[in-house]
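Entry type: protein chain
Record version: 2
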Amino acid sequence: MDEIHLNEIGVKEKIKIEIERHKKFESGLLGVKSTAVKIADIDIRNYAKYILRDGKTSEKRELLTCLRSKVTMAEKQIRIT
């Protein structure tokens, strides 16, 4: 994962949307007034790893749109260059 180059602005935007969604969930269903989660506190590479491991197929596809590296498939192997 260290060799993959991400469009950090795109990933940060996705993180921002997810944090806003989580805050809305907390306030609407759990009655929590505020949380102190900031986008700057989240490691983008760890977020990408989390999505690739545990995310839904649609989330994985969205993340892959943020890759700046070239992804190719040849001989049943995926290569990132």
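Comment: The first strand starts at residue 71 and ends at 74.
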